[in-house]
Each structure stands twice: as structure tokens, then as C-alpha cells.
Batch of 3 targets.
Target 1
Amino acid sequence: MEFHPQPPSGTPKPWAFPTPERATLPNGLTVLRCHRPGQEVVAVEVNLRAPLDAEPEGLDGVATIMARALSEGTDKHTAEEFAAELERCGATLDANADHPGVRVSLEVPVSRLPKALGLLADALRAPAFPDGEVERLVANRLDEIPHELANPARRAAKELFRELFPAESRMSRARQGTEETVRRIDAAAVRAFYEAHVRPAAATAVVVGDLEGVDLEAALAETLGGWTGAAAAVRPMPPISADDAGRVVIVDRPGAVQTQLLIGRTGPDRHDRVWPAQLLGVYCLGGTLTSRLDRVLREEKGYTYGVRAFGQVLRSAEDGSGAAMVAISGSVATDVTGPALADLWQVLRKLAAEGLTDEERDVAVRNLVGVAPLRYETAAAVAGTLADQVEEYLPDDYQARLYAQLAETGTVEATAAVVSALPADRLVTVLVGDASQIADPVRELGIGEVKVVSGS
């Protein structure tokens, strides 16, 4: 038997987040195209500039109902026919609404891309919004609301946003509306919101996948290129303001055996130069099982299965203004709520006094930068990130530059950023739990005035 020596490995090539090609169709639709060899399932993300703060007064949730209704029939197909056509393509189509706008997501095998783009175009160009389907979606949404209120994590988020932002701000209210506002939504309201905000000149389509041999220009021209509408109206984004005076809100859940924690405040978004350092520092604090919060609260004290710190962009504007939420979340047993919060605050104070270590910084860089290629193995992951950049008015090469900036950020910069983002005396704490058991221990901590609200 003859043996052949194994050929030497090649020189590793540095990985970089892909930069798309950008174009504009005659109807004003912006298109970002990104060829990813081997990714035979193509992902399409369409950003519609229909933000939640554009919802009419008293109709919170209409953007969500509109997003869900886009695939419930068009001028060519009923809702059932449209679903059957998607199934024949092997495609999935989803849509959701958030503060920056509405996002429509399509995934389809590349061989069926032109057909699926036609269905997507129909949904955007001429949704039917049948009265019966809208009524069904409203009923479904009303059924969801009690379940969301019963979920401790979602209830905590709702209370934190209500506490942080002024009552007149759309940020302070439930993203998908309340029972009162959703009940008012009908097909006429959905059509009116669509006609006011959904148009090609105020939209961007991101297409990612193996596009070798695909005449994407022709496919787009025949589908999304046929979507017409008025020019995009310039609508100023209202500024985001928040009250981060240190205080505690307990959402009372009598008999609860656990307390859900959500501690946060607003901070700079991705347009700010401090974002890479903040991202790195927050990751060191609570981004992984080996972070500081978990080492103390989970491993040393056994209070929790895990506590996380994170930053989440809320909304950005074209002028570069915007804000992000910086928060800490987790849950602990009711009887250790006071001690767990005391130790959590001690972690924050020690971090401010002593700073991060070089080892913590190095581990965070390896985890955030080193595993980046694995995060973007699918077309959907790449398309989602590119769509996020569009939504936040960031340049197309932002993500690629971010990884380089993270690698260059030092321990001192990361420490300063996380301490500034989460100062121990300027945090709003929301606890969902049994107030009769946790209110007095929390008051003794001195982390802010304690208020109890009903959990219903």
C-alpha cells in the first residue's frame, strides 16, 4: 500500500464580514446584494420605514397587525392561496414591527427565488387586508396579551420601559399594543397605516445567498421593481429621553417562588464611538457563563441559573442620534432576592473601583471576534445584520469595522465604558415577584425608592 504525505495547510485568510453591493431600482427601492457561495437558501430582508411612533393615537399595535396581515391575501391570491404558493416554493415569509419600523423576512431555495420574490412583491405592492383576516389577527393578538403579561420576563420589560420613558413617548408603551388599543384596530385602520408609510422609496431590500448564475437584476425588475408608490416623506424622529434616577419597582406576584430581575437604563447606540468599548465591557460583566455576574451569583452563591448583561439598540435616526438599552436580567429564588441584589451591586461597585482584568478583556475579544465566522454561516444571519445596519442608518461596512475596533479596544477603555453604562447609583430596577417577601429586604439595600405595583 502506498502512502502519500498530507499536503501542507494553506495560509489562513483573515475573516471579514461581507460588504454588499448597493443599487437603487427605478421605483426608488434600495437593494443590497451579497453573494455568499454555498448558501443555497437565499434570505431576503425588507425594511419598511413605518416606525411605531407613527401609529395613530389610540391605535398602538396597528403596525404589528399590518405586518402580520401582509401575507393574508393580495390582489392575486386569497390568504389560503398565498400560503399554498409559498409552500410550493419551499419558502417562509414572516413580518414584524418594532420601534424602527416593519421588517419582512423571506427565505427560499435559490432555484425558486424569482417566484418567491414575486409573492413578496405582491404582499408589499397590493396586500388585500380582508376584513375577516384582520379581525382574526386582532383576535389572535388579544389572546396573546394575557400570556405576555403572565410571563415574568416580558412583564418586567414592559414595566421597565414604562418607568424609564415619559408617558407621551411611544417607547413607554407596549410595542404590540394593549388590549384597549388593539380592540380598536380594524381593516380600515390597517389600510390607512399601510398607505401612509409603506412605499418602495422608503424601503430597502437585502438579498443574501449563493447568487451564482442568478439574474437578480431581472428578477427584481419583474417583481419588486413593479411596486409603485409616492416618494418617501421625510418624517423627523422624536428624540429619546429617559429618567434613570435610581429606583426600584416591584411588580407584585403573590406566592411567586422566584423573582425576575431587570435592571437598566438608556445609553449610547452604535453611532457613538464608545459602542465597541461598551459592547466589550458589558460582555465581560455578563455576556457569558464565565462573566463576573455569573461567577459571583451563580457559581459562588448559587442564587441563579444565570444572569446576563446586554446592550440593545432601541432606535436610531438618520442624523446619527438614537439610544440603546443597557440592562442586566435574570431570576433568583424569592428568599434570596435581597442578598442576590446586594451581591450584584457589589459586583458593580467593585468593577468601578478596580476595573476589568486584561484576561477578562482577552477572553471577551476571543469570544466576540473569534467566533464571528460561525455566527454568519447562514444567509439569514448575514441578511439580518445588514438589515439591522440599514434600520440604524449605519454604513454598509459597519460590522466589519466593528470587529476590528473590538480587537483594538483595551482593558481601560472597556472598563470606562461599562462603568459609565451601568453606574450603581443610576439604575432602574424592576422586580417581578412576591412583594410581601421581597419589598423590605430590597428597601434595606438603599438602591433607590421602592414602589410596588399590581402584577395584573
Target 2
Amino acid sequence: MASKDHTKPNILFILSDDQGPWAMRCAGNSELITPNLDRLALTGIHFSNFFCASPVCSPARATLLTGRIPSQHGVHDWIADGDMGADNTIGWLKQEKIIEYLKGMTGYTDILAAHGWKCGLSGKWHLGDSRKPQKSFESWYVHQCGGAAYYGAPMIRDGKVINEERYITDVITDEGLAYMNKMLENENPFYLGVHYTAPHAPWQNNNHPEHYLSMYENCPFESVPPLKNDDLRDQLKGYYASITAMDANIGRLVDWLEEKGLRENTLIIFTSDNGFCFGHHGVVGKGNATRPVNMYEESVKVPAIFSHPGRIPMNAVTDALVSAYDFMPTLLDYVQLPFPEGESLPGKSFKRLLLGDSMKERDHLVVYDEYGPVRMIREKEWKYVHRYPYGPHELYDILNDPGERVNLIDAEEQQDTVAAMKAKLEHWFVKYVDPHLDGTHEAVTGEGQIGLAGTAGKGQPAFK
């Protein structure tokens, strides 16, 4: 009946799409209805400073899976070509090629599978060659590309192109539940990735059930900066409704584990690929919502909850700085598996935080982000953003200016801080970047990736 061995827990990894760190009630948003995310937070630990590796979906997802930063795995922007080629059924997306972007790279699911875990995926993949099961997943129900309509969603089931007429958030959950039910037939631990397309656009035009939309009909939306017009208010209503619909489906997954007696031997992780601004800084979108691309806190931070009753402390919150590139070493450490590439990759395990132990060393750590030629270093007190080669650059006093309203890059009294942070940033990236895949050499604009980056691209255009 799945795994009952506490040394080999089942793992339920829930990944949302474009969810800001502010977009949960347990994160302080009193307008959002998220009882099941709140339930997970009450039974686990909430990370208030969890950073994605890049503020856009495909590179962020690739880092979670491989532990490599974008300049090590070569996915620098959202994938606009390479998922399905001309066979995709998304009207607005014109693709020509099929590319396995992570070919030859080890994902943590490969290591889990090699040590007995059965691995299934339901939902968004968006890392190329969508028809082909990759990274040791034995069950493969995935979105053809990235975002699309919630009704009639373009999906892949058993290698076949289909359009799901039902609400895709419900269907992704149904497929996940079916996989877990199948796992009851053996004693192996399972890993299930449930990758929702929510709350990614579209939000309007009847893309979400009226039941959820009506919950926000009279919402004043004081949880975000003032919205400029009624169209944005309507979009935010859809954004919130999509999160509440996803939350209800997360409740179905947790209920199933409890009903089957597996909750105490299942690690549940909830996070998002990248963050999102909804009026923050005058922006609606993520890292590619501006030109040049941005590294705002709302774009680079994501919600993150880890819950495992009996092992992870209950109702805990930590403000430790952790990153998506720390995720793979942490997960493998948590289930006591080796991390063969660990010495060459930047991530460090924060397992001790999950177990409720103090990690003083993390108080002095910094996190790094990149989006093509834009790079960021973030300490507890300061954030520095460097845009290669010519800028503009940014420096923010996060302690006194958490809203990043005053750019101190030209302040005479802060030039020593600028120099010190730039030196740290460059030293770190020189240490870990694969020169064949260095994002500072790529013409990433936020319009999408259409081919292999660096020398692997053999001179062909890699970005729109």
C-alpha cells in the first residue's frame, strides 16, 4: 500500500504557475480564499524568502528539476519552440521543431527512480519534446506546451495529442489521484508531480468556473496596489478564482492521503515556478513583463510550504534565504539519497531547517538569480541587479525599502556596497557558469526561447 517506510516517504510535489509569494491567505493576503494551502502551512513550514532561479517558467522549472542554474542547463527563457513542433493545437503558438532541452542532464526524479520510487507527472512540463516521457517518469500526462485555455486545454495522454474539454485544474488532479490509486497496488514509495497551469493567464472569457469567480464578485482587492481600470479588476478576479480552484483541488489530494492512511508517510511540497506582480511596481506580470526584464521581489520570490506531520515542525515560518537551486540537494538529503553532482552545482541542502533545527550559516547566505544577461544578488539587507553589458543597474536597501521604491545605484555613499555586491555576484557566477551556456552571451528579451543556447545551438537563433 505505497510506502510505509519512514526512511522512504512518498512525495507529493505540487507546483503552481505564476503565483506571487503574496498570493495565499497564510502569506498575509486576507482576501484570497485558500483554506487548503493554509492547512498545509498549519501542518508544516512556510518559507517567506524562497527564490526562483529565474523569474520566468521554463528556466525556473529546469532548475528545480536538475539543481542547475540556467547558465548550466541552457534554458534561459520560456520555451516558445521545441515542445510539439507543428503538431501543437494552440492556435496562437507557431512551432517548427521538437527539442529535448534537458537531454543528458540528471533530474532528481532519475535518482529517486534508481532507488525504488515510482514517478508520475500530471500537468505542465514545458521543457521540450512534450510527447516523450523524460527524467524517469513512468506516468506522463502533460500539457503540450505552456499556458493555454482552461477548457479545451491541449494535453498529451499516452503519447497522443488531445484537448481536454473539462476544467483542466480538475483534470490534472484527477490524473494525479488515479496515479496514487495505482500506487496502492505495490509497496514502493511514489513521487507524484502535480503541476497546475493555474494561476497562469487566461483569467477572463469564462476560463474559470462561475462558482469560484463569484467568490470575488464584491472583493475590494485591497490586497494589491490600486488597479487602474475595471479590466484589470476583472483579470484579478480571474487570477484569484484560479488560485481558489487550485486550492480546492489540493484539498482533494490531501484528503486522499489522509483517507488512505498515508498522510504521515508523505512529504508534501507546494511552491510555484516563478512569482508574479499584479499592480506591484505598476506591473502585471513576472520577470518578462518589463523591458528590460525585472528582478522585483514579487517576480523572484515564490510561495513555498513543506509539510510532513511527525517529522517537519507544525505551523512554522522561516525567513531564511533559500533558492530553487537548493531544492534538489535538499529533497535528496531529506530522503537520504546521494547527490553525485553536488560538488559542481551551487545548491546546498536546507534539510536542517525542515527538521526545525537552527542553521546559523544561512543567515549569512545570499541568493542569486539570472534571466539571460540580467543577474541579481540578494542578501538579507541589500539587493543588487546587474544588466550586462550596459545596465541599467539597481541597488535596493531591502530592510528600509522592501517595496524597492528608491534605486540607490548612483548614491555616492553606497558605492562601496555596489562594488562589494558586484564582486560577489561575478565571483559566484564565474564559479558555476558553464561557459558554453552563459546567459550573459545570449540575446534573451523575454519573448521566448526557440532553440538550444550557446555552442549547442550551432549558430542558429536561440531566442525570439
Target 3
Amino acid sequence: MSVETPHTLSPRGRTVVLLTCCLSVFVAGLDVTIVNVALPSIQRDLHAPVSGLQWAIDAYTLVIACLLMFSGSLADRFGRRRIFQIGLAIFSLGSLLCSISPSLEVLVACRAMQAVGGSMLNPVAMSIIATTFTEPAARARAVGAWGTVAGVSLAGGPVLGGLLISGLGWRSIFWINVPIGVLAIYLTQRFVPESKAVRGKRFDPLGQLLVVTLLGPVTAAVIEGPRHGWGSPLIVVLFAVAVASAAGLIAVERRRFEPLVDIRFFRSPAFSGAALIALVALMTLGGFLFLNTLYLQDIRGYSPLGAGLLTIPMAAAMAVFSVVSGRIVAARGPRPALVFAGLLLAAGTGLLIGADRETSVWYLVLAYLLYGAGAGLVGTPITNTALSGLPRDQAGVAGAIASTFRQTGAAIGVAVCGSIVAGSSAGFVSASHIAWTLLACCGGATVLLGLISTGRWAQAHAERGGRQPMQAMEATR
């Protein structure tokens, strides 16, 4: 449970708080699509191999995945406004350093620094919104505005990135984060009241270390496998460390009173299903953005601006169907939205299996629209399904775990698709067909997992879990 400070906000003050929080989701969403548009330019300027481009993306998503839950506990313990400002400062400084990176290695390190700050933005900002807008109707409107800004940032990223890259070069895509970050820091200091949890969650350093040694090595192994060989000692050791860390995480977290990752949550079929859906569905997003950018610019010869304009239908469909998804879930529950989302993801990526140099632009636009609609539909039912089988007072932690699976899925999608392309001697077009097939299968897996996690058995378990009091859960410690 969290409390607000005695500071009473006027309607204007609450609006400024919402605007400040929306600035964070804007730069975070913008960073997703704007950096992908810049990949071919970064590749040429820094002489980066495909694996280097994978690291430029995954250094960000992977670090966020590792630190999301830790950053949330920091905010609950030390104050959400304080951690939010620190996150904005680190993100802005990391962006500035990215813009002056002299080499790929430095760029990757600065992207990781960005992510340290990024892990303190959206989850903490959502907590600030929840404590600022206490009335259900006002909170719903605030969250709706938040989602709209997220969609606008995704849609605007390709166009803005294309304009900046065409006029000023790829380094300019990081400049835009700095003034927005500085403005958000000022507004936070001036208008956002401090809030924190009544009793902060204990830190779990061993659990945090095991999360890092699980996600880091498995991603590194997938990215570097084609270059070093899948049977090389380095790759074998990386996979072994990941497996050992997974086993250690399960063993250690089951015995802790306040674990970083509560293993008991995965006893709920609905929660486990939602976590797997988040993983496979976001694999398609990471893989889609990575493959499509290289395809449009390197294979089709589009400029960064042209590539950005062509992908607007995908981002716009994401924004529109993220709103539609909420209405479907409210009216019909998560099952229809998950099934339709999986079918659309499979259809959009499936159409791109045969894409080559001569594929019609209208064919690509159709694929982008279908994929964007699926990506927009899937977010809300994932969250709804993840929370349905757990006590309400565990919603924050459960949401953080689900978000971690989303980020991990995006990182793995980039790693796997990039490795397929980099490890093939048949050329990008032929190799990408295999990658697109894999992503289409992920869409099919979303349908299957959606049916299982919202079926009668899972729903019955969820109802029992939702009624289970916290005292009973504590007794299982």
C-alpha cells in the first residue's frame, strides 16, 4: 500500500503531473522506433556488423529487463519523485553520451546507461499517476492519456528519426531526449509530490544478481553464436551459466520472505500464461522492428525518412488498436483480444515471409497494418490476464514481472532474428524468410497460450487465487 504526501494538488497541478509523466513515456516510446530507423546509418558510420546492431538495441532492452523490479522497489522505499528524477537525469546523460560515441563499443555502453535511467521512468511514472489520480474515473482518463502518448511516440519515431537522420545524421536522434529530459526534471521538482510505500520492500541482491546472470548470458550467447560457433567454449559456457542461474533463482527466491521474483506467482496458470504470451508476442515486436529496418533501407534502398514514412501504418495501427483492446477486454474479457492479436501478429509477419526486392509497397503496407493491429491488441489482455489470478495487493509486483517478460521477449527477438540473418550465407532476403517464419510461429503461439491461459481451468484457478487472502499466502512462505 502506498500513500501520498499531505501536499494537495489542484486540478491544474494534477494535469501538470500527468504531463510530466507522459513526457517520460514519450521519450521511452520514441527511443524504441527512432533508434531502429538509425541502424543502417550506425552500421555504415561505425563499421558495425549485424551482431553490433543487435547489441545497440539489446543493451537497452536487456538492462531494462534486468532492473525493472529493482527500480520499482527503490522508488517504493526512497520516494517515487526522487527515483523518477534520478532516472530522467541518467537517461538524458546517457542519450547525450550516445550522440558523441566514437565507436560501437562506446555506443553500446551508453545505451546500457540510458537503460539504467529508463528502468526508473515508465513503471515509476505509472505509480506517480496512481497516487495522484485516486478517483477511478480520473485515473482511467489519466491512464488513457498515457496510452495515447505512448502510441503517438511510437508512430512519430520513424518520421522524426528519418527527418533528423536525413538532415543531421544518426547522432541527432539522441539529442531530442536531452531537452525533454531536462524539462521533465524541472516539472517533477516543481509540481510532483513525493510518495512512497508505507513499508518498502526489502532488497534482494542475490536475486538481482541471478536475474542478470540469467538474462545477460542467454542473450549474449544467441547474439554471438553465429560469429563464434554454437559449439564453441564461450557459447557453451554462456548457456551453462544461464541454466545454472535459472535453477539458482528458483531455489533462492522460494526461500526468501520478500523475493525479487516471487516464484509462487507462476503457480497461477493465468499468470504463467500471460508471462509466456508477453515473451513470445514481444519477440515478434523486437524481431519485426530489427528485420524491417534493415530490409527497407539495405535491401529496398529507402532513405531513413522514406523507411520511417512507410512504417507509419504499423505504428498508427498499434496506437488505435491499443485503445480498441481496452474496450474489448472490458466488454468480453481478455480471451478474444488475445486470440485476435495472435492471429493478426501471425498474419502480418507471415505476409513478410516472401518479401523480396520487388514486393509491392501496398503489400508491405497491408502486412504492417495487420501486424500493428495485433501488436496494439495484445498489451492490455496480457496485463489483465497476469493480474486476474492474484490478490490485488500483489498487482504492482506482478505487473513488474510481466513487464520484465515483455522487455526480455523484445531483446530475444532481436537476438534470434539477427543471429539467423548473420549466420546465413544465403543473403539477407533468403535468411529473413526463416526469421519471419519464426515470428509468425510466435503469433500462433500467442493464440494457443491465450486460449489456455483464459480457459475454464485457468479461470477457476484465477478465481481461487483472487479470493485467497494475504494471510494465507504468507503462511506458504
